[in-house]
């Protein structure tokens, strides 16, 4: 599903990207059905950041809300990209994983409950390194368990994007929704340039960055399920439709054979032009 | 990281708590909660040390117009006095709605 | 803490299976073999360096596109084969330099190749296969998430050449705008930041830390002893739930992951409130 800008005009659109994590999460629910869990006043913060002179945030940069989407029970977990780059720490990671586990338990009790994860994140919070990495592994395990019962929808709107270990979590999702501004990839352009030089990836080339990691490219290569405008009603609509759709017959990450065939058919002698790659990728190996 | 505390005399009971802001670079979050007693207590955690006087100036000014008996927590990552003032006013606005 | 040498994976794979080769049609960077382990017939998997890999950015032991999808396929094979029978153990021998850092990899969605492997390992675990990770060298970031971190039980050698972390020290220093010395100092007080495997062990994520004199040249006795530990881990996994709750219930976790436990307890209480 894609909206080629025929929806809200630029002047009338309500930017989703300009909202903070709490506002984004709230916007996805059916009106007046949502409440926040472990909010800032519960003060469950990072024990590790103050030890390093970094001011913690009262919700550790992770908002958990429970309510209804399209009339069905749902939990929304939103990472705050403005706090430590939305990175996964011990507390923010555990909030996300525990929320999914509780949703899973509700499904097992007969209450269909979906999960929507808003990813603005660079991956592991290096100030918590191994607890952040472990949190991502545990989150991935919880996504695998929950998605058997109900859809796990990952939404990337920008401007941080979804990188690092959290891109694997997105890879496990039932559905991926992106805006054009959003980016999804394992390694950001700066990291690649750092490791393998500017020839490999010129991180200052913004057009290249979005041509490889951006929402439009991911959607065109069937790696995202919907491309939406930066317009709150449109974003909420897309989420509602995937919640209603339910669990897909096969998850993308379980289709290894399909993707392996595509990888095998790719030449590696030189870099691919991203637009040409779209044709290479979607026509082979199926 | 520096922790700073201030107390101000206060009288008016406040009904609602409020949370505004984000601990992003150059920004801050404010948690404002109703409290007992005739005092407003402010607790600041800031990653930029050495600006106690600046904090005092901003808060002194804020409390010339605000008399709620509250506990205010500020988590700061290098905001300007102007931003601090703004966030405090936003928090008050939310708590008075 | 020593550099990644790229030999340990092959050494231990050969020690357990008698061979060090990929399956027919697989890239040379992924070794797969079924071999006896205790009273089971286990599948062993390992990612190793292939200097002639098709993709230029995976020639030093990095985990890339082909590696992710090959691991996924070889693990799924076991799930499919054992659908109506005893669930065989799956042993990930881990010594991986890092994920692959390349433009081709990003264009062709390495994030999905990695997710596919993790999906396979995690699905095997959920289906009842004991999945065991033995960290014999390096286990970094995306590479470990792909190959090993979905295991029921993780074992590692107590050795300077063993490192589990989110990012190499120099890069981590750069990103967090600290010197390497400052990072080292912080790591002494903040166990999750440490590069020392003994500090990692304090986090409660490891099943066991194993002592081996020289992991690059193990004796026959040491090999048998490690095999025994793998058998013990398999038995332990078989008598436990298939999820990863053991990582939070260990004695060490109750000490070092108090915040995680608090989150879980409070969230559950608030979830049920109305």
Q: Could you characterize what this model shows?
A:
With 286 residues, chain A is α/β, with parallel strands linked by helices. Chain A is built from ten helices and seven strands. In chain A, α4 (166-171) links the parallel β5 and β6. Chain B is an alpha+beta fold and 97 residues long. Chain B is built from two helices and five strands; from the N terminus they run ββββαβα. In chain B, a hairpin with a 6-residue loop joins β2 (18-21) and β3 (28-34). The model of chain B has no long low-confidence stretch (mean pLDDT 97). With 274 residues, chain C is α/β, with parallel strands linked by helices. Chain C has two domains: 8-242, Alpha-Beta Complex (2-enoyl-CoA Hydratase, Chain A, domain 1), CATH 3.90.226.10; 244-274, no CATH class. Helix content of chain C is 45%, strand content 16%. Chain C has helices at 8-17, 65-81, 103-107, 110-126, 141-146, 169-176, 180-189, 197-201, 220-238, 246-249, 251-256, 258-272, and strands at 30-37, 40-47, 90-96, 131-140, 153-157, 163-165, 208-210. In chain C, α2 runs parallel beside α4 (110-126). The longest helix of chain C is centred in the last third of the chain and has 19 residues, at 220-238. Chain A binds chain B through residues 20, 39-41, 50, 53-58, 61, 80, 82-83, and chain B through 1, 17, 19, 22-24, 27, 29, 31, 33, 45-47, 73, 75-77.
Keywords:
heterotrimer, A: 286 residues, 2-enoyl-CoA Hydratase, Chain A, domain 1, 2 domains, seven-stranded mixed β-sheet, B: alpha+beta, Ribosomal Protein S5, domain 2, five-stranded mixed β-sheet, 5 strands, globular
Blueprint of the fold:
The complex is a heterotrimer of chains A (286), B (97) and C (274).
Chain A lengths: L20 H8 L6 E3 L24 E8 L2 E8 L10 H19 L4 E6 L10 H18 L5 E5 L9 H6 L3 E5 L9 H8 L9 H8 L1 H6 L5 E3 L3 H14 L10 H10 L8 H10 L3
Parallel strand pairs in A: 3-4, 4-5, 5-6, 6-7
Antiparallel strand pairs in A: 1-2, 2-3
Helix pairs in contact in A: 2-3
Chain B lengths: L1 E8 L8 E4 L6 E7 L4 E8 L5 H14 L4 E7 L4 H16 L1
Parallel strand pairs in B: 4-5
Antiparallel strand pairs in B: 1-4, 2-3, 3-5
Helix pairs in contact in B: 1-2
Chain C lengths: L7 H10 L12 E8 L2 E8 L17 H17 L8 E7 L6 H5 L2 H17 L4 E10 H6 L6 E5 L5 E3 L3 H8 L3 H10 L7 H5 L6 E3 L9 H19 L7 H4 L1 H6 L1 H15 L2
Parallel strand pairs in C: 2-3, 3-4, 4-5, 4-6, 5-7
Antiparallel strand pairs in C: 1-2
Helix pairs in contact in C: 2-4
